[in-house]
Amino acid sequence: xxxxxxxxxxxxxxxxxxxxxxxxxxxxxxxxxxxxxxxxxxxxxxxxxxxxxxxxxxxxxxxxxxxxxxxxxxxxxxxxxxxxxxxxxxxxxxxxxxxxxxxxxxxxxxxxxxxxxxxxxxxxxxxxxxxxxxxxxxxxxxxxxxxxxxxxxxxxxxxxxxxxxxxxxxxxxxxxxxxxxxxxxxxxxxxxxxxxxxxxxxxxxxxxxxxxxxxxxxxxxxxxxxxxxxxxxxxxxxxxxxxxxxx
Length: 247
Fold this sequence. Notes:
By secondary structure, the chain is α/β, with parallel strands linked by helices. The protein has helices spanning 17-26, 48-62, 91-111, 129-149, 167-174, 186-192, 197-203, 233-242; strands at 6-8, 31-35, 65-69, 116-118, 154-156, 181-185, 208-212. The two termini are 12 Å apart.
């Protein structure tokens, strides 16, 4: 098996980042899914470049790969956990999310990360879907241009309940943004019941930038330990092997 497995630093929220990285390496993982957060390499704090350079050395010393995750709560707004988004009703708010995602690509480039994963967001009450869709496409175009300038892949994750919720939503958006990659969360395929997770791997193989796998029950957006949900994990791993995925 040529697959490499990484662990998301969301699971080490009570640890210092350096300690978390060491624990992940000690557990035998080959990489880190780094969720940029207040306590884990705050991307908006002074000195982020110096801390990123130190982390890059640490990852190299441990032989760990990396992807960047951007779903931290309350990072940009202490009162609303995921605001602002690319769908926020004011240009200023949307610019704040775009700036964060652009910073995330810069950090990813410094770390040698293989992808930067992000999501669309949920339209706030009063926002028309047609407006949200237009703002989303405009914002992603800016993020993609910045990512390409830094040699980074930017991958959008369909998220249950968000404007881009399903793989079909992602595919429709990607027709006008051809460099957009897919952050495929296999558990979300169970939540939305749109596709068999292993079949989704095969279908979207050319577009996958990063993959997340966890157990879930069909129709329920609750992350579960392996073996406690309905995920056919061996089938998913076989599918990833079949397409030659080595992320």
